[in-house]
Structures are given as C-alpha cells and as structure tokens.
Amino acid sequence: MPAAREFITGVRKRFRKKGSIMQSSLFADDSAIPSEVRAATPEASLIPLAAALPETLRMGTSSWHYPGWAGLVWDKLYSEEQLSRRGLSAYARHPLFRAVGLDRGFYRPLSVEQYADHAARVPDDFRFVVKAPSRVTDPLLRGSGGKGERINPDFLDAAAARAELVEPAGAGLGPKLGALVFQISPLPSHWLTEMERLTEGLHALLRSTMALKARYPEAVVAVEVRDRQWLTPAFVDALKDTGATYCLGLHGKMPPIAEQLPILRALWPGPLVCRWNLNLKHGAYGYERARDQYSPFDKLVDPDPETREALAQVIAGTVGAGQPAYVTLSNKAEGCSPLSVAALAEAVRARVGPA
Length: 355
Hints:
It contains 14 helices and ten strands. It is an alpha/beta fold. The chain has an eight-stranded parallel beta barrel with strand order 1-2-3-6-7-8-9-10, surrounded by five helices. It has a two-stranded antiparallel sheet with strand order 4-5. The radius of gyration is 20 Å and the shape is globular. This is DUF72 domain-containing protein.
C-alpha cells in the first residue's frame, strides 16, 4: 500500500508544521473557549480510499460546526460554539476533507484577518470554497425572517463584490482560495422576463474578478443560480469571456444533474465546482424541513444513490481530463455530509481506478 503510506506521511508532516501556530496567536482572542477540539481517529478504510482519489479532486462539507459529527470528525461531543471557533484544524485532519465551504460569508462578509485566520489553521494543500455575500447576490434586502422587503441596490454590483469578497478573500486566503461562488438568489418573478439585462449585469460583475485570477491562476470563479431562466447562451458567453464556470447546484429549485450538464458541456474543458445543497425530495422550499428531519446530522437518512452516481460520473470525467474539481456537500443532501463525502468518494474511486 505505498500510496496509503505516502498519504499518511503527508498528513503527519502537514500538521506537525501547524502545531506552534495553533498554540500561540490563533487562540489569543477567543480564550473564552477553553477546550481544544481534537479530530476523531478515522476509520481504517478511509486512508486507502483517500489515497486512491485523484489529486485534482477536493471534496468537503459546506461548514464544520456540527456537534453531531462526534465520532466521525470529532473525537467527542463539543458545543457548536467550540467547533465554530476551533474545529477547523480538526476538520482538516479528516482523510477525505481537502476543502470546506465558507457559506457564512453570505450573511456577513469576512475580513482579510478572518480569512487569514482560517487559512492558518489548515494544511497547504487545503482549499476554501467561498460563497459570495448576499449584498451582491440577492436581488432583495430581507428582514429577520428572510422575507424580501425591498430591492437591493447593490445586486450584481462589481465594486461591492471587489470590496467585500474578491479582495479580502484573495488577500486572506492566498493560494488556499479554491473557488469563489456567486450563488444568485431566486429572482422576483417579474424579473424573469429581464434576463438579458440581468445577464449583462452579471457579465460586468464577473469582469471584476479577472484580476484575482491573474494573481492566483488556480482559483476558480463560479456562478450558481436558483432560476433555470439564467441558463441561456448569453449566460454561457459571459462565463467564457471572463474565465468563470458554472457551479453545479444540486438543489430543489434547480433541475437534476442531467438537465444542467449542457451548460458544463458548453464550457468544456473546464473545472468543476459543485455544491450539493439539498435532497431533491424536499422540493424547492424544503431546507428547514430537511434540517429538522436530519438533525443532529449523524447518519444518512435519505441516501440518494442516483444523484451520487451521476455526480461521480461528472467528477471522473472532469479530473480525467486534467481539470480540478471542488465539491462540497451539505448535511441536507442525505442527512450527514461526512458520510455523504465518503459514499461519493467510493463512487468516484470505482470510476477512476487506482490513483
């Protein structure tokens, strides 16, 4: 098992280097959280599974603060606050996790210092999939209950995107920035007849990210949508012109993978960014229902082998062509994202063969 031994050795080296950092400055400002979060001992089968996966595939979950992952990711039960503040380093020790989603930035933009703090807690080959703030991706300003109250004047604003996402994420994460995802929230129904104008606005927004790609060529910019009306030739042209790609969004408001693949084919060859957000059985507005049914997210409740196999096929085709793939999975996909990652990894290994 030489590949497995090399993998284990690499993991050990990566985390030895971080020890002095973790014991010093990182914890200085959150001393109210006294306990260090430790990683669970991984199942023996995960080590050779991770070693068999292509180097260009980076998978992970959409966040890391779930107490229900005790025994899977954490060595014991921790509070959500402990995990939110200190869990990232332990998360990154999981053999299959080479990426993580930073979805929290959608609600409140992160600073350069916050991005840099995250980057300092993970090994060099780890990557972040960063979700753009709602200030530039949501057409509506919403109240505390999530209901749209009025039109957002900064929707698709390039200057706001640079100031609140592109520049701080690039400066803070540096080469650990894997993908920036502009997830465009559902449009008001009367806007769906104005897709030409909106696509022009998106095109201008994406142009503002091109300087980032010049500094970090491996970083990927992707657009995820919640209305299929976006999926037009003009949308594809905007992505091609700016070097961006389409984020395969697996969510109840979007059609299954097979119906989204023509967009990826039109952009081929190119990287894959996929966010498996929600099991399709819950429909377009079932996020809260899935959360309630699946909590505490410690087991697969609704396995979806059909979606998993279709996604594994797309991943295998992408990495087989030498392109990178970033895939994050939510607990709301099948009930427990660490177990979903493991099941997807098995499906990928079956298609790509030995690394």
